[in-house]
Amino acid sequence: MLVVPSRVSAQSSSSNYSVQESAFSTGSELDASSANFSARVSAGDLGVGFSESGSFLAFAGPISPDEEYVELVVPAAVVDMGELTPGVAGTGTATFTARAYLDSTYVIVSPRDPPTTANGGATIDPITSAATHDPNVEQFGLNLVANTSPVAQGAVPSRLPVDDGFFAFGEAAPGYDTADNYQYNAGDIIARSVVRGYGETQYTISYLMNITPITPAGQYTMEQDLVITGTF
Q1: How big is the CA angle at 132 (ends 214 and 80), to the nearest 5 degrees?
Q2: Of the ranges 24-28, 120-124, 163-167, 187-191, which one carries the lowest mean pLDDT score?
Q3: pTM greater than 0.85
Q4: C-alpha dist (Å) from residue 186 to 56, 114, 150, 174, 190
Q5: How many Å apart are CA 231 and CA 147, to the nearest integer?
Q6: Is the pLDDT of residue 34 over 90?
Q7: Fewer CB within a 10 Å sphere, N or C end of the chain?
């Protein structure tokens, strides 16, 4: 590996000469001149950061992909809500990450039906409009934020590797973005990025499930799929 510093300066002297400042440099901040022209050389300086105009955008840096892409990473996981009893909510969490580049807005959809018995004979009623836990009704819902009720669970979307909020802008979608409010409709957009940026966002899904004394007995399962679509 070759490492070239942008500038290294030092003072040096001998019994006959002295140099107040000498430099080994890639060219930055060096003056060059002749009888007719003069210039300040900046070859080798790093150019990093984000810039945008009405027609173009650029992320400057040492390595930049040259093609658009979307990436969704969903670790294999089983969310076990246990054996439910009426009035006591079942809860659980799962995580996934997403990112897109270059013009990096995206939506993430959850298309599967809510928990259903093996023979398809019964389905837990989904919360079709965001609402809090009600122990007196049958409920299934989720959100992607930090919650305190009915239990403390979940987290707000975080930007990786450092949550500086600059290179990634993933967020919970409307209906799934309010603490202690849960919702689920198959086919809903549950997460999105509406601002461009190429960083990775980690999401935490918080689940809520509640039954009543007349909920049909059985083992309820949901094989949840997540589908990401880049809106380039």
Answers
A1: 65
A2: 24-28
A3: no
A4: 36, 7, 23, 15, 10
A5: 29
A6: no
A7: N
130-178: pLDDT as tens digits: 999 999 999 999 999 999 999 999 999 997 765 555 578 899 999 999 9
| Residue the block writes with tokens 């919970």 | 172
Q: What is the mean pLDDT of residues 19-40?
A: 62
CB 44, CB 26: distance < 8 Å = yes
Report pLDDT for 43. 57
**Rounded (10°) CA dihedral 115, 108, 166, 180:** -30
What's at 88, amino acid-wise?
Answer: V
Instruction: Give the chain as a 3 state SS string.
Output: CCCCCCEEEEEEECCCCEEEEEEEECCCCEEEECCCCEEEECCCCCCCEEEECCCCEEEECCCCCCCCEEEEECCCCCCCCCCCECCECEEEEEEEEEEEECCCCEEEEECCCCCEECCCCCECCECCCCECCCCCCCEEEEECCCECCCCCECCCCEEECCCCCCCCCCEECCCCCCCCCEECCCCEEEEEECCCCCCEEEEEEEEEEECCCCCCCCCEECCCCCEEEECC
Domains and CATH numbers, the chain: 7-60 (no CATH), 69-230 (2.60.40)
